[in-house]
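User: Fold this, then the next.

Assistant: Folding the first:
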Amino acid sequence: MNIGEFIKDKIVVILSNVLVYIILAGILLTANVQFIIIFFVFCIWFFPLISYMAIEFIRCKNYYNEINGILENLEKKYLLPEVVKEANFIHGEKLNAILKETSRDMHENVKFYRDMQLDYREYIETWVHEIKTPIASTKLIIENNQNEVTNKIDSQMNRIEGFVEQVLYYSRSSNVNKDYMIKPINLDNVVRNVIKRNYRDFIHKRIKLDIQDIDEIVYSDGKWIEFIINQIIGNSIKYSNNKEQMIRIYTIKKTNSVILTIEDNGVGIVPKDLNRVFEKGFTGENGRRFSKSTGMGL
């Protein structure tokens, strides 16, 4: 707060006092009161007013400057009501009370929605657990009754299983740190597990595989990295152009890391969409050409 802002805020009080004093001075002059007395009245009138406003300005300035300073240095600005000091004037006290009440209400709302989110996540995890039983039963029936029809059903069941897995991992994505177990894993084993899960689609779409030397040990979470690779390869299969489709998988070794590269010659991604492919719900230009695109996979 600066002096100009303070005067602007108090302009009505200042102008009212000046106007009343001018009227009083005019009456005194009309009554032939000496100028020295009128000046003395001016001093008695305005000295306390100016002193009060000066003290008020200093208190307000210190209070708001302190709030601005805290706000600038505070990373989580919603915590301002918790750290701001008590004010020593009535307007500041009222503002503090309002801020604290607002903060309390916000925390209650955040807790409410967090509880809702937790309940929803628990429901999803329970649903996924329950749905796996009929899926497993169906796959067992298919295995015991092999024919062309059941093979097609099995292919669709694998897709359903993939979607169920996607739902489960997405529900856990907000708390990935609690579901992570980092340990040495073999990239070749992970990739081949994914290929095995999708082998029917590779055969159906006649997609050639070129898997180079990927026998590398990396530190990661086996379940999560397999899920991620499955999403990428699933996209390659889904958006294949059915013309000599090929997927190449290889690694690039660096000093402290290994880069797993998955390439295909499918429809690709329009260059202008590359920066947004990891945004939830973004389908892009090519995605709009495929009615089943959801923008959730990547």
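Now the next one, as you asked:
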Amino acid sequence: MSKTSVTGIALDGRLVLVAHRNPTGQMGGRWEFPGGKVDGNETDQVALAREFKEEFNV
């Protein structure tokens, strides 16, 4: 069974939104673009919007 994930890049002029992983978690301390797994019958766009909301409350 395959899993689908999404990743997004948010730009505001010359600014780029990135996430800094928890230093004690998996791959701790790394920087990454926000994203995650697509749940159930979500579209990629809906999944990415949900991930941005969960991770950044935007």
